Amino acid sequence: MSYAFRPAAVTALPITNTLDLFPLRRVYCVGRNYADHAKEMGHDPDREPPFFFQKNPDNLVLDGEFPYPSRTSDVHHEIELVVCLGKGGENIPVDRALSHVYGYAIGLDMTRRDLQSEAKKMGRPWEVAKAFEKSAPVSPIVRASEIGHLEAGAIWLKVNGELRQNGDLNQMIWKVPEAISYLSGLFQLAPGDIIMTGTPAGVGPVNRGDRLEGHVDGLGELTVIVV
Asked: CA-CA distance, 35 to 54, in Å (whole number)?
């Protein structure tokens, strides 16, 4: 038996201090997971149940460039902590969730905000705003065995040297173990799944030529040029 055409290559992320690669399976994203960001988007920051949307594994890019996409005139940056799972499961208890984490990375959830706003008004899904080509620049993965688990620490983003987003991981409404546990009640998680855990306040538009510098304590920095 043969394939009708050549299968797509496996999307994988480098892992710091090793030659191994982390093969991606699914990309889950937590929506409105910082109270100040929920407020700036016009929503109540109360602790309602979390919600999720997805990007595609091949949306993740490592080349340091973000091509400004088509059909939009309002693309926003969203800096996020990325959680990478080394074990899967269903209905994972909160107190065991961190044992499923392989490591962490820095990611940008680039968003066609005008298309997202249109979708919200019409009650439609967000994929055209979120899951477009090269919409998730990401850093190499740092293993949890090296740095432990990230529960607090600065997360920020500068655009052309100007600080735009500035928060702390401890400001997440749904902490990493809670997000993993809740998500595992909705989906069967597996090794290679990653979770983009939401963004702090300060999201805003980018333009061609902008230099984005993102930081998460313990993970270093991610630099991306809008082209």
From this structure: 21
Sorted by where each begins, the domain ranges of the chain are 14-226
> What is the rounded radius of gyration, in angstroms, for the C-alpha atoms of the chain?
17
The pair of three-digit structure tokens given for residue 202, joined into one six-digit string: 């300060």
- pTM for this entry: 0.95
The answer to whether 104 touches 82, Cβ cutoff 8 Å, is yes
| Phi/psi of residue 205, nearest 5 degrees | -75, 155
Q: Which residue is listed with tokens 């705003």? A: 129
| Cα-based distances in Å from 221 to 15, 26, 174, 176, 197 | 15, 24, 24, 20, 17
Phi, psi (deg, nearest 5) at residue 38: -60, -40
Residue 193, burial from CB neighbour count under 10 angstroms (0-12, 13-18, 19+): buried
Give the CATH fold of the 14-226 domain: Fumarylacetoacetate hydrolase; domain 2 (3.90.850)
pLDDT digits (tens, 9 = 90+) for 92-112: 999 999 999 999 999 999 999
**Residue located via tokens 């990230």:** 150
Using DSSP, state whether 48 is helix, strand or coil: coil
Alpha helices in the chain (DSSP H): 35-40, 113-122, 127-130, 144-147, 176-184
**What DSSP state is assigned to residue 172?**
B
pLDDT digits (tens, 9 = 90+) for 125-171: 999 999 999 999 999 999 999 999 999 999 999 999 999 999 999 99
In the chain, which residues have pLDDT < 70? 37-47
Cα maximum dimension of the chain: 56
